[in-house]
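Q: I have 506 residues here and want to know how they pack in 3D. Can you give me a structure?
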Amino acid sequence: MIRQTLLAGATLLITGAAAATPAPAPLGLAALARLGSVSERYQAYNIEMVEVTGGRFWAPYGGPPGEIYRQRPPIDLTDPKLVALARNLGPSLMRVSGTWSNNTYLETPGETLATPPAGFMQVLKRSQWTNVIAFSKAVDAPIVTSFAVSLGTRGPDGLWQPEQAQRVVELTREAGGRLYAAEFFNEPNMPGGAKGMPAHYNAANYAVDFRAFRDWARKAAPGMLILGPGGVGEGGLTRDIPVNAFGDAVSSEDMMKGNPGSLDAVSYHFYGSVSQRCEALKIGTADRAEALKPTWLDRTLVDVDFYARQRDKYEPGKPLWNTETAQAACGGSPWASTFLDSFRYLNQLGALAQRGVQVVMHNTLAASDYALIDRDTMTPRPNYWAAVLWRRMMGSTVLAAPHSPSPELRLYAHCLRDVPGGVGLLAINTGTAPQELAVGRRALAWSLQGEPIDTRSITINGRAPALDAKGTLTGLDGVPVRGALRVQGSSISFVAVRDAGNPACR
């Protein structure tokens, strides 16, 4: 066993009577208390509306100085490799939304437009939306969306009209799909972020429009969950953005108090910082040197607590959803696509599950630097492999974390997926020193490492994971552990303890 492990390059240590250091204390996995549960589709992702239509999205790094956006063709949702990669994340949810969805026009049957009608900024072809539906069904990821609210959707009185939303619902139904959930529109606390919105849009305007949306949705799409308000960053990030950067700010609290008790779930968006593309906002950018520090990793807790307080005031008892999040807004910084960001990605999943968040939707599946998959090459990035292992290991029942031997080793525990009594353990070592965990004698482990830490090509138990020609993921076999698991510095391990015997996991 030792010889095989060393040959594989894995980072597991088998301990026994001859060990030079004392054996680590047992983790007590059988006694971990149940904290709650998350959705079976907890780990989800976004496909931006502008990806579907084609258009100007965040530009890759290395272009002309000052380039922020770049024109991109529509994403090919029929690509077999993309379908296979997304299928391995399911069951999940896919959100098709984003700032551009606020002013997107869906064509009528037989209509072909070269330019959008007045009051809209881009055109969604019916065939593009039917491709969204086909992709959703193929990868077991029902659709979450939002609707157009720009000037083109409004009557002479300036009030929102549901014609465009109704068109989306009807086409989805005709194509055999369904809308699992929807926000009214994207990030209404910064309405000026999308072009074509009414000037000086405020909470009172939102309250009137939302009532019209809510009443329409209950009749037109009775099975669709209503999410909202979907504000971004009010716990931390957007407090420091000048008001005139995105127009007049609107608080989520003011929006929620206008129609209390109207939501099926309270949704919010979170970014810890912005990328270099948005340096003009003068609020700083995601700092590589801070990537493994508590101040960065715990920033997600500031916003979840902020929105939970609003939920408790106006929608008590309703679940929380994080419907858009990533390393940094504006497409992600250059290290968003590296292993260095996997520490944030997995820590956020673990921490928000403990806070009771039901769904976390990563932005994006395959667009810009924060994507799970490189769109141009269809190469999975480190966060994709982290997502796959989370999906395979961490069930919907959330357990209290076992005691960690070091503040630099973050531990999260869930019931092991599909194994009664089993426990899935996530160990995130943000320090440089190895840490040992007593995980039992019948555990399997998966160690994620990158050299250097900001690599885009990680190993799992010493092997490079991949997608083969048949659409099967390879290089993901667990390694047996007998006694203790050594979690190397600046690495991440998943552990499956099938015989933990935790009664909360029956």
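Q: Anything worth noting?
A: The first helix runs from residue 2 to 8. The chain has eleven helices and 24 strands.
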